[in-house]
Amino acid sequence: MTITIIAVPEFSEKKAYSEILNNLSHSPVRYLVCSSGYNKKSSEWFPDLDWAPVDILISSGEHESFLREYLEVIATFNQWNGKDLKWWATHFSSKNRFNSPVLPFLQQWFYCLRAIESHPEKSTLVLLGVSWEVIQGLKAIQSNHQWNVRVISVAFGYFRYRLLNKIKLWLKFLAKIVRAIESIRDTRKTFSLSTLTRENLSPVYLIKSFTYQRNFKQNGKYSDPFFGKLSEYLQQSFAGSPSVITVALGFQDKKECYSLMNTLNDVVHPLEAYLHYSDVLCRAVQWIYKLVFFPFKMKGRIQFMGYDTTCLFKELIRCGGFRISFSQALHYDIAKRLGKKYLIQVCLMTYEGRPWERFFMAGLRKANLNTRIIGYQHTVVPISATDMFLYPKEKDVIPLPNKIILTGLIPKKILEQYSSYPKEQLYVGCALRFEYLQGLSFLKYPRISECNNFVLLVAFVGSSEEVPLLNYALEQASLNVNLILRMRTHPAFSLTRLLSLSSRGRTLPGNVENSESHDVLEDLKGCDAVLYSGTTVALEALMVGKPIIQFDCGDLLSNDPLFEFTNFKWQVNQRDSLRVTIQEIQDLSDIQYSERQQKGRTYVEQYLNPVTEENLAEFLPAASNQGNYYRSKLE
Questions:
Q1: Is-contact 37 6, C-beta < 8 A?
Q2: What is the C-alpha to C-alpha distance for residues 113 and 305, in angstroms, rounded to an integer?
Q3: What is the DSSP-derived secondary structure letter of residue 493?
Q4: Which value, to the nearest 10 degrees, does the dihedral of the CA atoms of residues 153, 159, 160, 165 take?
Q5: In the prediction, which pLDDT does 17 show?
Q6: CB-side exposure of 425: number of CA atoms within 13 Å?
Q7: pLDDT at position 533, please?
Q8: Integer Cα distance of 316 and 329 in angstroms
Q9: 469, 558 Cβ separation under 8 angstroms
Q10: Dihedral sign for Cα atoms in the order 223, 227, 233, 234
Q11: Which of 495, 469, 477, 474 is nearest to 553 (CA)?
Q12: How far is it, in rounded angstroms, from Cα 534 to Cα 536?
């Protein structure tokens, strides 16, 4: 079997490959496009060639097996390197889908192998947009499977790719050091360090959170974006002892947030207020020494989906795959300083399996082994939230909280199914971020008999992963001119930015509008259904009785937080018509519609437990002692 891989770094070099493409056109050609860039411009490569795309259909069983094998691969590396605290600063170790250097290559590997396995012997298979890591992996096993892998590239393309990635690794690392220093400088300019309380031997309940400018209210009031009114509840419960202190990290509006902290009645401090310039410089020297002289190791062979991927991972490491999150590693110094400054009885922190969490926990335990750490799962848990899933191999090496509080019964069941957390470590609390959903009535649904004037709210998360959803929505808008689509984008990722990445241009059709509403409920009141891919707006829609339509973009790891729910939910993919789905919703009788509404709300209520006195009690120090105490081996 002959497999032709066209490795082209730039689309501008198309002319150099025109002769090759023409030579391939004499026989039936099937092609697979592996990268998003090629998906966007693939029509420019073969507009006049009679090539047939490889249509790969993925079963639910394959989604499941991909997830479990991916978790095992990362767990194997964690087992090899996890006794070194620095390892947990690598994006490699966290499994996070947005930052993982591994996941994109394993997805390419999966699709390439599926194309090869389904390849007819009498046709030519062409793979486009394949990374060099995957190419080297396929070449390494070609003799074992009687493949003839032919790679077409520019001169020195492979070596240039490896060199550029090494340079990018070091430039990004140095840039993070500079940003850390700038962050300390900006914090000291905007926040008065004199307001920090002195060393205190009285017990402290520490909340580690994040902040946005919108969370600062008038008259010195503050509402935590992740823990809501928990601080107020704790202060009332403690009657002064222990005291409650919040340390929060700002984002885009960091300077404004830190300045406003000076005016608050509550004790809220910038995270960087506990970081010194010397911490950054000392850690920078240590990291450079580590990466140059004692790099992380690959200590065995790796199998994935039935094939040997050892060479793929060796190439990934050579090309700078062990990317470091320097700023997250600095959380160790911050936590250790907090632990020495205050007698921290309990620390409550968001918990998603991110690198900073490992370092924050290790720093607290370095300062005081008696500090109880509570991790709070504050949001949804889709299949793609792989950093939340603990594999058996990791249990003895990965830093874990003493106790993990979940928003409801559904997330608990998901973690029990896909993870290996000790059962005595998982507790159901409440959904602090979604307290406003309690007590809401179903919104009125106008019974529209046709697609005309049907308003569809298209809800996005803050990521470029939503571009396929945008492309689909714009295509359906042009095909259904009487359908109104209202785009609700994430504050961190504007519609303009999404459109700049879209293959359908930057001009919106006349029946598409951009929502300017800050409140989700306002948009839900003005729509008849919600189209989404992986946002929490879907849960909010079900809570107020709106039907939801999930767009399946074909990812191996689904972003849908409602992947187990089907009663008041429809699913579409790139080939489906929205008109047909909308008609199915409109064909429901009033009784059917009402029954499905209630099933949707019941499911969300099990996902997002209400905020009650009983549920809030799980966050109290006495309740935190129930957790299985984890003594860190990374001192």
A1: no
A2: 9
A3: B
A4: 120
A5: 60
A6: 22
A7: 94
A8: 22
A9: no
A10: negative
A11: 469
A12: 7
Q: What is the CA radius of gyration of the chain?
A: 26
Per-residue pLDDT of 497-517, as tens digits, reads 899 888 777 778 899 999 988
394 membership: H or E segment, kind and range: none
* 292-329 per-residue burial string, b: 16 or more CB within 10 A, e: under 16: eeeebebeeebebeebebbbbbbbbbebbbbbbbbbbb
* Single-letter code of the amino acid located at 212: Y
Q: Are 242 and 203 in contact (CB under 8 A)?
A: yes
Three-state DSSP class for residue 347: strand
Topology (CATH) of 455-607: Rossmann fold (3.40.50)
Summarize pLDDT for 141-190 with one digit per residue, the tens: 999 998 889 888 877 888 989 999 999 999 999 999 999 999 999 999 99
Q: What is the DSSP-derived secondary structure letter of residue 513?
A: E
Tokens 């947990």 appear where?
Answer: 88
**CATH topology of 2-58+98-158 equal to that of 455-607?**
no
According to DSSP, the β-strands at 303-304 and 307-308 are antiparallel
**Residue ranges per structural domain of the chain:** 2-58+98-158, 59-97+159-438+611-635, 455-607
- Confidence check: pLDDT of 86 > 50: yes
First to last CA, the chain: 53
Nearest by Cα to 307 from 462, 464, 111: 111
> By three-state DSSP, how is residue 124 classified?
strand
Residues in the chain: 635
Output phi, psi for 398, to 5 deg: -85, 135
Please give the C-alpha separations between residue 501 and each of 294, 492, 495, 575, in angstroms, as whole numbers: 40, 15, 10, 21
- Specify whether the CB–CB gap between 322 and 348 falls below 8 A: no
The kind and range of the H/E element at 320 are none
DSSP 228-278: BTHHHHHHHHHTTSSEEEEEEEE-TTHHHHHHHGGG-SS-EEEGGGG--HH
Q: Is 590 exposed, middle or buried (0-12, 13-18, 19+ CB in 10 A)?
A: exposed
The domain 2-58+98-158: what is its CATH number?
3.40.1010
Residue partners of 557: CB distance under 8 A and separation at least 6: 63, 66, 67, 70, 97, 103, 383, 384, 386
Q: Using CA atoms, how far apart are residues 322 and 564, in angstroms rounded to an integer?
A: 34
CA dist 550 → 57, 458, 566, 573, 576 (Å): 18, 10, 10, 8, 12
| pTM over the 0.70 mark | yes
Residue 162, token pair as written in the block = 């490896």
Phi, psi for 542 (deg, rounded to 5) = -65, -35
